[in-house]
Amino acid sequence: MSWPVVILNGPDLNQTLSGIQFDKFGDVTNQKIFICDDWIAGFDWAQDNDYAQALFVKSGTIITDWSEWKKLVDSYPHKGLIAHLIWHPGQHLCLDDQCWFMNIQEFETTDFICDTVTHPQPIRSDQNSHDDYTPLWVTPGDCLISHPVTEFGQGLIARQLQNNHLVVNWNNRARDLKFFLYNKKLNLEMFGDYKNIAENQLWIFNNEPVSTVKQPRLLAPGSGLYWILNILEPATQHIQIVDISLTQIKFCTELWNNWNGIDYGNFVWNFIVQNKLVHYELDNPNLTPLGRLKLRSKKTFVEYVNQKFHSIMDENFESSWLTAKQTKTVDFCNDNLINWVLHNDVDKYDDIWCSNILNYKWTLLHTTVDDYKNFQAKLK
Questions:
Q1: Looking at 186, 213, 241, which one is the last position of a domain?
Q2: pLDDT (tens digit, 9 = 90+) per residue, 328-347?
């Protein structure tokens, strides 16, 4: 059983989730996650579900490359507890609770709530991770000491030392892959490679089910065929498209202004070639490498796209499309849909379709928990 991630809820939860639910370039990790309001609840959940190990992170902890981070943790040399060790001169050893990894079955709930601890005197490494108060490791000595618990993690440290195990600090590689916000605004330029992909992505089809809503005025992202299906619906008169991808906005605009409704596959192919696109998605993320290679052929690509398109649209699509272009309106805006909804009057729209933006790495990076809540309140 793979280890889960226990996250302590907080104002930077979305940013923390962005680096755990998604890898460096935005692919879903399918990582098991439990969000708690206190560490005891998180520990008890992991113990009750018979997990052998778990990673605990505080909201505000940012993982920049989950795949590399997971590899690092899985191969990390430890004896049951990895954490940010803090040992200031003249004080007792403690942990920073921003991120730690533990063998669940070797600890107890009482380790989080004890008032005093007794354990072997810790012996520290000569070297530090940084400054003079972050030992690389501590190991149990020969004599026992007792002291009041005044800082986080002292009960966990005591249990580990009582079990005759050392406690290890996160190494420099871990620190390269992880940082903590400390209530500071996230520097989005750190994710420049991913942002460049997301903000220039083209979605040719949707990767989720879409349907017509039969309402006059709609608001939606421009991905795939949702807006095309709905502008053909007799009840629909206007669609406002808001999308973070400038490429998607350009594609939708050119479809609406210049396409005659014939040969969608060829239109898409020409758009990709003319705009020298690298990042575009069809409907099937599980295509084999050979399947993707075959789609580099124009003939194969156009046939694939047209077959998919015609399986969704009815046989009268061309005439319906041309009629819609003459009688209905579509507006386009390159923006974050959540931000757009929060700063515009949306009461005039009969339906807002969110696609998958609420569970999308770009949105999590750019949107606070309060923005999420306010957005969902507006939807209701």
A1: 186
A2: 999 999 999 999 999 998 88
